[in-house]
Specification:
31% helix; FAD/NAD(P)-binding domain; single chain; 60s Ribosomal Protein L30, Chain: A; seven-stranded mixed β-sheet; 4 domains; alpha/beta; five-stranded parallel β-sheet
């Protein structure tokens, strides 16, 4: 084995799976006080994760969806944590990798798991006919679906489970839907009364609230089976329900059992007093997905929150070879339960109180918790984790052969006989036999990384680079890639190179393009560029500036990626906006180009760095024609307009403002919308000029293509409302 290379910069990866309460708080703490030489990564299938303490208030209608959800991307941007939106489905313990659905695996040195729990639907019929409250991350959409069905619903809805969660949920539902007189609510419990383990005064307050909201309580009903029309008990009793909502004991996510970690009989990860896996000390587990053997606790959010400072200290200690701190959780804490309306009951150490003021107390505590995570303050100054040692430039900046060789051999490459790639072979360049009668087409594009999620970034780089070929009507054949990785320990660079190249290779293979070679180097920042090679029939080239009078102008993707990325870099972009921007950039222009080949567009270009106006002006160059744009018809990404209102703009925007001098603004136009016309797009859509008949045909085959204006006989661009 080769000796470890000493390195002063980033040399360790800590990866978090799941955006639960513990992890969110740990990320906030480590953002304020980073661990030296350590890169943090959060893998979460949702950008927005719910705070369970406010779920009843959301169901009752006291809070909006955004009020009750933590924006993980924004938190990670603020804390300088790499955020990867993806679903973890397993671990490769030996390779120390997280298996992510549809992506390349993510490597770790230390790992922490906080993926919550799932509903225990082991009772016959429950998985088919019951609605599970857990995982809480999915209940928001489930509740919205229930709300839609409640509009004209009648019958009986039942909540199974008489713990705090079940009582709060049924009261919240009854309060929210109190005007639906044909709906009746039931609470089903196996014991004699609600809230087992709570003081009698709290139980009486809960029972009074249930009676006040018209909830029928069914004590001693131990569910034996669930069917489409309701529940059956083990004593043979039947309860007819049109909806059965499951709020009982938690079960472990199924994939944990196959990770190689030691799990309990119920499938939860067994951890010691330091929150470490008892079988793999470099893996930690917290929250509902774990069972702490030394101090077992119920699956409750309050304990997950209190684990955060201990996990923070122990992750820090592992890196510095310090002493781990055993977890010591309180046995007694302030418990606050919502009672449907804006009232609550609370207890601690024998003290009990109820009323509107208790709800205000709970609201204040919960709101401060969310404020701490969703609005942590201005973005921190970037914490330098780069090495202070001198790095070579020129050819000395190339990545080492041992670093890239193994990665390249793992790539899946689209096989095209006309291309003989030099990738992984001792050749200096690739060979390409152009098809007889075709013209060769070549383009180059690239940029510095705007995301630490290298799987998505690599995909976007490919889509962006191939777009120039699609815009000409060419067929992409091969590509060469230049990857420049930010300075880090060779072990970290090898991981990043493998992930980025796997993403690029996968995106190229999906579009039937051969990865024919490239170059890898290191520098102060990560950059990716691709040379895209293609072929085209010389008689079917789509030009930019061959527009015709009367042509309709169609745009195939919404605008706004530039200002959304600008806001995201400052940790100010909301989750809906960042998700929309990513989803748009991940969409290739291959499909629209395929649809266009059945038609005869007058002119085509792609909308990228010069914004919609800049690229439209390119289409009008070398002509005496002009264009009329209808501002209200131009599609925008979710959140783009609101961020424009707040003043967010790309740093390229000032250099594009001169384009407005070639425009005639008609009437009182919304300046924020006008500004977005100058927004530089990454992996933007196509701008197409074609006659009205063809435009309708294109929209039939590709509904995302939107008519935004037309070509006129008056020079310049006229912009109307």
């Amino acid at each position: 084995m080769a000796p470890e290379i000493p390195y002063e910069g980033v040399s360790r990866d800590i990866v978090f799976i799941g955006g639960g309460h513990t992890h969110a708080l740990v990320i906030k703490r480590l953002g304020m006080n980073p661990i030296p030489a350590t890169r943090l990564t959060l893998i979460s299938e949702q950008t927005l994760t719910p705070y369970s303490g406010m779920l009843p208030g959301f169901v009752a209608g006291h809070y909006s969806y955004l009020d009750t959800h933590i924006d993980l991307n924004r938190l990670c941007q603020w804390a300088n944590v790499r955020f990867i939106r993806g679903t973890a489905t397993g671990l490769d313990i030996d390779k120390k990798q997280v298996v992510v659905d549809g992506q390349a695996p993510i490597s770790y040195d230390q790992l922490s798991i906080d993926v919550g729990s799932t509903p225990d639907l082991s009772i016959p019929g429950a998985s088919e006919h019951a609605v599970g409250v857990k995982p809480v991350s999915q209940f928001g959409s489930i509740w919205n679906g229930l709300l839609e069905t409640s509009a004209d619903a009648s019958g009986d809805w039942g909540v199974v489970g008489a713990g705090a969660g079940g009582v709060e949920l049924v009261l919240a539902m009854a309060h929210r839907l109190q005007d639906k007189r044909r709906l009746k609510f039931h609470l089903v419990l196996s014991g004699a009364h609600v809230l087992p383990g709570y003081p009698d005064k709290v139980v009486k307050q809960a029972e009074a609230a249930l009676a006040r909201h018209g909830v029928t309580v069914h004590p001693g009903f131990r569910v034996a089976s669930v069917h489409e029309a309701g529940l059956a008990s083990n004593s043979g009793a039947e309860l007819m329900l049109s909806k059965s909502i499951w709020c009982t004991g938690a079960a472990a996510p199924a994939w944990l059992a196959d990770t190689g970690l030691k799990v309990s009989e119920r499938g939860f990860i067994e951890v010691n007093e330091f929150l470490q896996s008892v079988s793999h000390p470099n893996v930690f587990a917290v929250g509902d997905c774990s069972d702490m053997l030394s101090d077992p606790r119920p699956k409750a959010g309050v304990y997950a929150v209190r684990q955060a400072p201990f996990l923070t200290k122990n992750l820090r200690a592992v890196g510095s070879h310090g002493n781990l701190q055993p977890v010591k959780l309180q046995s007694d804490f302030l418990s606050l339960l919502s009672l449907g309306d804006r009232s609550a009951v609370g207890c601690r150490s024998g003290w009990t109180a109820a009323g509107k003021w208790v709800w205000k107390l709970k609201d204040s505590i919960d709101s401060k918790f969310m404020q701490k995570l969703n609005a942590p303050g201005d973005k921190k100054a970037m914490v330098s984790t780069a090495s202070t040692q001198m790095h070579c430039a020129g050819c000395g900046s190339k990545l080492g052969p041992d670093l890239i060789a193994g990665n390249l051999s793992e790539l899946s490459i689209y096989d095209r006989p006309a291309v003989q790639p030099a990738l992984g072979r001792a050749e200096d360049a690739s060979l390409w036999q152009v098809t007889e009668g075709k013209l060769a087409v070549q383009s180059i594009d690239g940029f510095r990384s705007f995301s630490d999620d290298y799987w998505r970034f690599g995909n976007i780089c490919v889509n962006h680079a191939l777009s120039d070929l699609y815009a000409m009507g060419a067929t992409p054949i091969s590509a060469q890639v230049w990857v420049n990785l930010a300075h880090a320990h060779p072990r970290i660079q090898k991981r990043d190179h493998r992930l980025l190249m796997a993403s690029i290779a996968a995106a190229l293979e999906e579009q039937q393009v051969t990865l024919a070679g490239g170059h890898s180097s290191e520098g102060t920042e990560t950059h990716v560029a691709l040379v895209a090679n293609g072929e085209i029939d010389k008689d079917h080239i789509w030009r930019k500036s061959t527009v015709q009078i009367g042509d309709k102008l169609l745009l195939t993707k919404p605008l706004g990626t530039g200002l959304i990325l600008a806001a995201d870099m400052q940790a100010k972009a909301p989750a809906a906006a960042t998700d929309a921007a990513m989803d748009s950039m991940l969409q290739s222009n291959a499909a629209i180009a395929h649809c266009l080949k059945a038609l005869a567009p007058s002119a085509v270009t792609d909308v990228t760095g010069f914004g919609l106006l800049g690229h439209l002006l390119e289409m009008l160059s070398d002509t005496v024609l002009g264009a009329k744009l209808t501002l209200s018809d131009i599609p925008l990404l979710a959140g783009a307009y609101e961020l424009s209102q707040l003043g967010f703009k790309s740093t390229l925007y000032p250099h594009l403002q001169a384009y407005l001098h070639q425009c005639r603004l008609q009437g009182a136009l919304d300046q924020q919308l006008v500004d977005i016309l100058l927004d530089p797009q990454t992996s933007g859509g196509l701008l197409i000029a074609m006659n009205a008949t063809q435009a309708k045909q294109l929209q039939n085959s590709y509904p995302a293509a939107v008519v935004i204006g037309e070509i006129t006989d008056t020079a310049g661009i006229e912009i109307i409302k």
